[in-house]
Amino acid sequence: MNGTAGTVGTRAERAVLGGLGGARGELLELYRDLHRHPEPGMREHRTAGKAAEALRAAGLDVVAGIGGTGVVGVLANGDGPVVMARADMDALPVRERTGLPYASTVTVTGDDGVGQPMMHACGHDMHVACLVGCARLLSGARDEWRGTFLALFQPSEENGEGADAMIADGLTSRVPHPDVVLAQHVLPYPAGYVGTRAGSFLSAADSLRITVHGRGGHGSMPQATVDPVVLAAMIVVRLQTVVSRETAMTTPAAVTVGSLHAGTGPNVIPDRAVLEVNVRSYDESSRTRVLAAIERMVRAECAASGSPREPEFERLFALPPTVNDEAVTRRVAEAFAAHFGPDAHTAELQSASEDMSRIPEAFGVPFTYWGIGGTDPGLYARAAAAGTVAEDVPVNHSPHFAPVPEPTLDTGVRALTVATLAWLGTASA
Ligand code: ZN
Ligand code: ZN
Questions:
Q1: Are 311 and 332 within one domain?
Q2: Predicted pLDDT of residue 6
Q3: What's the structural domain count of the chain?
């Protein structure tokens, strides 16, 4: 790991990060505690309480209960820029298989009354610990910077509803207005890695339910029917051409028909078919174009089959693309390059999706979102040498995914702090 405080980076970075040695033990303990106690989206009461408690102990003002369990810590330190950093808090319905001494054994009861094992399988526990650490270090060295730091802890990222819940509950009028929003996510790269990317970074995710109508009847008299099974089959095949024939090679996109249901038996032609479709894209224009192409093809296939009713389109799930602001990303990337040296990288495009961008969008301000590695560097190096990274390195949402506490925590705290000081650290000069 590069970037040892006292050798590189700005004076403000060295002074603020000088507090990391004294805070590290408690932050690691907080991380392990959160890992042991995962909570589902919109039910992160304990996690939010821990974050709020740590923020108050560090001297921040705390606004809690925004959109359910959302928390914002406010560290006002004179005139200057206002920087918001965001972490997500929710865990996943996964049974942990890491074998770690602090592994989760938690089971929660779902809305259906059924018990469900829970796990922090996406590193949100690490995000919380890193953001608490950054707030604590900034608070401990207030002479080194001017402005306001906002530490935002968001519920329910995995369900794509937490950012919207905070915004609907008045987030933008309950905390100071930021000039910029920063966020990070643990990814399956070697711990120590930080990766920024200007422009498109994470995909948009859209899920649709499409109902197409036929005219039911006897399997022996197809002439009296409109067969929705054949219609749905045509649609499945036709939709394969949205990406292969209508999308440029340089514009990644994916269209997947994940479910198709019709009929009850061999000699009954049903009266409808239901398809569920997932769409991934990297910017609003290709997203709009792909969704429009799907609708056009479905309507045209229905017309071709003589469908007696227009198809119905229901949006099940929609997450925006995460498109990083060019200028903000450049500023953060330059600060990372100076601080982290060869561990600072340009990140690859990621196929996952996020609701984080809704927060800066609600404030009308730019953002950048970067990745930090969480995989044991030795494990990663062995897998890379053997050509087995895909098989041997657990990815987010795997029951084996758990960032190594160090150096992941160190890197995450440093990255948030260095990026924040790229705005605040120059304000005291
Ligand atoms: Zn996730
Ligand atoms: Zn996540």
A1: no
A2: 41
A3: 2
